[in-house]
Amino acid sequence: MMQLTDSHAHLDDESFANDRKEVIDRARQAGVTNIVVPAVDRASWNRIAALQDRQKGVHAAYGMHPMFLNQHRPEHLDQLPEWLENHPAVAIGEIGLDYFVEGLDAEKQRHYFQSQLAIARDLKLPVIVHARRAVDEVISSIRQMGGLTGVVHSFSGSQQQAEQLWKAGFLIGLGGPLTYERAQRLRRIVTDMPLEYLLLETDAPDQPGSNHRGERNEPAHIVDVLQTVASLRNELPDTIAEATTNNARRLFRFP
């Protein structure tokens, strides 16, 4: 069976409370051997740590998401390095900038983003980045900070922006949105991009693909993303699965 990695799934989300084990079992049956679960706020760190302890192949990332800005406190930034010293993690995330949602203070977002980038650089951990209507600024921040690796998940930028990220040593994560025929820009990018910079993801429970529109998304659905990438590139699904799983192992240094 193919081995797949879901590089971004919020398995700690409340929508999985009643059937989380079954969701993980379905993922494994689909060939998903590794799932990266990024945090969104301080409260989620505890949930994700417990989930990683219980479930083999589930890997934690800890950070503070820009959309949860009102839940973040300055002391949480102080707590993050100490938490990472005592809780194994494959990345710092989900962090980033979101200029799509109204009412989120841009300067406050920048403060938390830059601070977490610095922690990642100092601890030599990759970052999982959210960038919505903010890709250029994210690229600029990555360049200015230096010494970083990571992935911009649910990438929605241009070909030029993708190339700038690759040159900075970053990967791009693609999921359900790619499966819609209207996503022509994303489809052009994935058709021609160097395969070594691609990660597959679901962003479960959000962003279901075209075969599951209106449903709760889950890691097993990453197979639809795989099939879409393989079809667009005219390559075997096994080839895409092996390459993207190796990319994830290289970036996250799975044990």
TrEMBL record:
UniProt binding sites for a divalent metal cation 1: 8, 10, 94, 203
Keyword Chaperone found: no
SUPFAM superfamilies named in the record: Metallo-dependent hydrolases (SSF51556)
CDD domains referenced in this protein's UniProt entry, alphabetically: TatD_DNAse (cd01310)
One GO MF term attached to the UniProt entry: DNA nuclease activity
UniProt key word Metal-binding: yes
Taxonomic superkingdom: Bacteria
Family: Belongs to the metallo-dependent hydrolases superfamily. TatD-type hydrolase family.
Annotated protein name in UniProt: TatD family deoxyribonuclease
